[in-house]
Amino acid sequence: MARDGAAYVCQSCGTVHSKWAGQCTGCGQWNSLVEEVSSRPPGGLTPTKATKARGLAFETLETETAAPPRIVTGVEEFDRVCGGGVVPGSARLLGGDPGVGKSTLLLQVVASAALRGVCCAYISGEEAIEQIRLRAQRMGLALAPVRLAAETALRDIIDGLKREPFQLVIIDSIQTMWSDAFEAGPGSVTQVRAAAGELVRLAKKRNIAVVLVGHVTKDGQIAGPRVVEHMVDAMLSFEGERGYPFRILRSVKNRFGATDEIGVFEMGDIGLREVKNPSALFLNEGGERAAGAAVFAGIEGSRPVLVEFQALVAASAYGTPRRAVVGWDTGRLAMVLAVLEARCGLGFGDRDVYLNVVGGLRITEPAADLAAAAALASSALDTPLPQECVVFGEISLSGDVRPVSRMETRMKEAAKLGFNQALAPAAASEGAPVRVAGVSRLAEAVSRIGDGLWP
Ligand code: TYD
Ligand code: MG
Questions:
Q1: Could you report the per-residue pLDDT of 138-168, keeping only the tens digit for each?
Q2: C-alpha distance from residue 198 to each of 158, 166, 178, 360, 449 (Å)
Q3: Is 214 in the pocket of ligand 1 (CB under 6 A)?
């Protein structure tokens, strides 16, 4: 029986139910409902003065402020991904696997901002003060005037933040925060949602830029609260492949700027180093380019980035051939394989196909189609592409190669890194800074690779 005012909240998706049930109707998860008891008066809103209609005041879209003012932290890769710095009165969530370097990144961000005169607080619910100090010392940031606190009680945190004119506040992490208005334990959806709600309100009310850290669970969601994602103005994700020192900061949601921006860092023994020119990272170093390798001239956010695609096509030992992809979309691979089969006469039906993007980057641009196809064809035909050749272009189901955005920028970046040739849509040829092997059909590209026909 539901008690008066009690609600049952799914710990997986945050759907609120009025009665307990074995399965959540929102996400279908079993045994995920937990009773949420509020110490506020039950029964929801009682008609008080506040709920009386006051009339709705309409406004115009016009504003005197040209663009939101920004707090520039001085960590350029971070600022750029945020859209030119953080916005006062906004909340953003930084998600990432445990151990990827979220605390390290944000410690560098606050230290840098504090040294530029921004009033900063770093509140940790995970580490002790001494631990953070030691890390700061090792990273050479010990002298930055950051206000540091180790605390998890939300009430004390909000109270403390009201006492000084903070401009930038880091909460590390949202899963450790805990409000005494709810009985649920820290880390539960109830607590995370309550804490995020309070902190977002504080940010808006006092014009503070708040950054919340959120751990990601195994299935890639910010633990529990997809709900927090809706509350914040922007969401960043910090990613890294195991075994690589590179870390990629990606903007997933941004009410104040573009969302396809990435920032690249390298984790070293004194913290994260900004990588201003990431192209070199994602190219396989040294030696001849082997059959099955193709360098994609991509655009990530506002920047051109060169990334190597590697493909291996091999006879299949089992009945069902394998398709394995790292760093690219499986659906897209299936499409490119189908077009290679149907339009170019390359058969993959009895062969295993592996495709890998070097360096741990995840590519989502359609412009990568031709690079993937070139890598696959090169491996299938056992013929390498020219050493100094980059590839880009979108492939349609009909087998056409279509022009993509910012072709000149892509080729300029390639030229800068010593490439002198591009396998690209025919339209890229005009005024190109490198020699272009222009193709308008995928079949032309495949025969160029097979016959070694290059300009
Ligand atoms: P951390 O920022 O604590 O990760 P998160 O907050 O995302 O859980 O980073 C932890 C990892 O980073 C840890 O495995 C050690 C590594 N690290 C370095 O390699 N060099 C450094 O200078 C620092 C501070 C951390
Ligand atoms: Mg941490």
A1: 999 999 999 999 999 999 999 999 999 999 9
A2: 8, 16, 11, 36, 59
A3: no
